[in-house]
Amino acid sequence: MNYRLNYLEELEAEAVFVLRETFAQFQNPCILFSGGKDSIVVTHLAAKAFAPGPIPFTLLHIDTGHNFPETIQFRDELVERLNVRLVVGKVEDSIKDHTVQEELGPNANRNRAQSITLLESMESNGFDAAIGGGRRDEEKARAKERFFSHRDAFGQWDPKNQGPEIWHLYNGRKNQGEQFRIFPISNWTELDVWEYMLKENIALPSLYFTHDRPCVRRKESILAQSAYLIPHESDKLVDLNIRFRTIGDMTISGAMESTASTVAEIIAELKEMNQSERGNRADDFRSESSMEDRKKEGYF
Amino acid sequence: MAQTKDILRFTTAGSVDDGKSTLIGRLLYDCKQIPQDQIDTVQRISERKGLTDIDLSLFTDGLKDERAQGITIDVAYRYFTTENRKFIIADTPGHLQYTRNMVTGASTANAAIILIDARKGVVEQTRRHSFIASLLQIQHLIVCVNKMDLVNYSKEAFEQIVSSFQDFSAKLAIVDVQFIPISALQGDNVVHRSEKIDWYQGATLLHTLENLSVANEINLIDFRFPVQHPVRVDQGSVQDYRAYAGRIESGIVRVGDEVIVLPGNQGSKIKSIMGMNGPQEEAFAPQSISLELTDELDISRGNILVKPNNQPEEVRQLSAMICLMSSQAYIPGRKYILRYTTNEVKALIKSILYVYDMESLKRDEEQTALQTNDIARVSLQLAGPIYIDEYCKNKATGSFILIDEQSNQTLAVGMIS
Questions:
Q1: How far, in Å, CA of B408 to CA of A173, rounded?
Q2: In the predicted model, is pLDDT for residue B72 greater than 80?
Q3: Cβ within 8 Å, pair B401-A9
Q4: Which of A6, A16, A141 sits opposite B62 (nearest CB)?
């Protein structure tokens, strides 16, 4: 026998260790489930970490109200199959309660609002840790994230004052009201996620694969046509063969033209293509440091 | 191929002046790991700054404050991959006050890149980085003599630096040291072989990184299994399953093996091993598994499973090298929580034997206070027994952190020796 783990096995062993530490060190952790591939991988890893028992975490979905129907269908099927508890925090409710002010103008979206709904949902459900699919390779502000990332009583991240994280001794101690964000797949890249999907044969929403869809071309971006999208004068309506590289709020998830219909084809395409994963996320375009600013406010 | 592709973790320490950010940028850029849209962005910024060439250092600059100050203030992680290896870079700042970040970056690294400016030679910072790498037991040191273009690619300049580095590194506990003359700015010997440094016959930096052997770095001899949490399943098709979840920190275990549980010395046998893809006959470090025993024992988080004929040492006091990580002050006489594997015990620093002067790397036996970024040898008194190995034999069971119970911050990290 060869006593060596390959890179996917090592990443898996590391992520499972982190998930079990989360279970052991916190009272009531949840998994932030968006229906995107990263949160699907985290949920898959949690199922493996606690097998043959059930996943001991609640899934928390922060719902901007602008969902792809495919995501919701996938989510509900997964919840049923894994027999796991689901809690949905709705941005609509925060708007009704006036804790969130809906953005105005042609580029309004509910991305920043999500942070507030997330914090409210964590508080009302008593979650003291939220496990996310954030990866350090995604964005420069994430490159400095810890596996166990502290948030103060207002949910804020203080990037200049992070505790040290050394070897794999994770310190999840905190004061009353504070919380942690946990990132078990910190060390995975986008390609690692897809290679793992292939190896594990993980089910994904159909949105990730090529399909024909009415879209809106807006500058460099392709967005799904929907009732939620605020029309711009320069928008061009087109029917395209597209797939989504990241899935989130329908009004900001950019699509790409693609014919990839399997995970293997997606991997081949990613290797060919030379664009950032978040390169077509309208939310990251607002400024050079928009991710960092949102994270300081409590974004995942 | 994916089947044997493994991971190499390395750390780079150095300040902006050494060209560290440029080197990492060069490595990623020449390995074609930077997406075109990011190249475009950096190109735009470079032009705005009035530069003719693309400023490679911009690829690795992270947080807003850092961009404003032009320094790296925290450990940042970068990734790139080749056909047979995935690389994880812990990019750490090199300023004196950031010793703690260097320690963090070095803790998980298989290799350390030490950057030396060819014009300046071995400086205090070089010694400090090498010292920390040696303290953290990094096996491989790759000394990159950078900015060779600014010394006309001179062989003599390179050899002089190699020789003065060797004079000092002879005293360090590092197994493997390699020297490479490079120019990160021009791309010489980083990914592509330099035509201007024709007197150098050795490998490029990338080739060196791709071929470092890390197979022997996992201890497969001494079985150590710290329990993360007990597992109890009794529902559906699974009847009365009791197991212990954890990660094998070192060694190998097979079904049928005799084990004992520490503390308590209760003995049992392995009934089953649940791995990531169902039951398996044997498991090895660093796999995450669950172990089922043939006997019903009282085992909880923090207990450690070992083999009867190969046990760690039980101690109630220990001597260790610690590094002060928190900006909070160490309060003499205060009891801290010592967290070790998955276990915690209260601890008191009884005495400070010496503190390293990080500029001269000499021991100062007079110093009685500990400050942020200090590296010191201390003796600790523990409230209960823990089961340890020396750090040089087993990183996982030879390391710990000290947590301040009032602030919950990690005050210090330690290595047992």
A1: 6
A2: no
A3: no
A4: A141
List pLDDT tens digits, range B127-160.
888 999 999 999 999 999 999 999 999 999 999 9
Say whether residue B56 is in contact with chain A using an 8 A CB cutoff.
no
Among candidates A159, A164, A276 on the partner chain, residue whose Cβ is nearest the Cβ of B410: A164
Looking at the structure, tell me whether residues B288 and B183 fall in a common domain: no
Pull the structure tokens for residue A280: 């077509």
B184 in the same domain as B104: yes
ipTM, two decimals, is 0.94
Chain B's closest residue to A174, CA to CA, is: B408
- Give the tens place of pLDDT for each residue, A262-298: 999 999 998 887 777 766 555 555 555 566 776 676 6
What's CA B216's distance to the chain center, in Å?
Answer: 16
The total number of structural domains that make up chain B? 3
Phi-psi region of B83 (alpha: psi -120 to 50; beta: other; left: phi over 0): alpha
- Closest Cα in chain B, distance from residue A70 (Å): 29
B1 domain residue, yes or no? no
Taking the Cβ of residue B390 and every Cβ of chain A, the question of whether any pair is shorter than 8 Å is answered with no
| The model's pTM | 0.93
The residue among A14, A169, A196, A286 with the most chain B CBs within 10 A of its CB, best to mutate, is A169
Query: Could you tell me the pLDDT band of residue B1, with boundaries at 50, 70 and 90?
Result: very low
Q: Are residues B50 and B116 in the same domain?
A: yes
Detail the DSSP E strand segments found in B6-122.
6-14, 76-81, 85-93, 111-117
Q: Can you give the residue range of the structural domain that contains B24?
A: 6-216
Last residue of a domain, one of B306, B336, B354: B306
> Does residue B293 sit within a domain?
yes
* Cα of B104 to nearest chain A Cα, Å: 5
SS3 content of chain A, % helix, strand, coil (to 5): 40, 20, 45
Burial of B48 (0-12, 13-18, 19+ CB in 10 A): exposed
Q: The domain A7-188+289-297 is classified under which CATH number: 3.30.470.20, 3.40.50.300, 3.40.50.720, 3.40.50.620?
A: 3.40.50.620
Task: Give the domain-ending residue among B165, B200, B216.
Answer: B216
Residues B330 and B283 in one domain: no
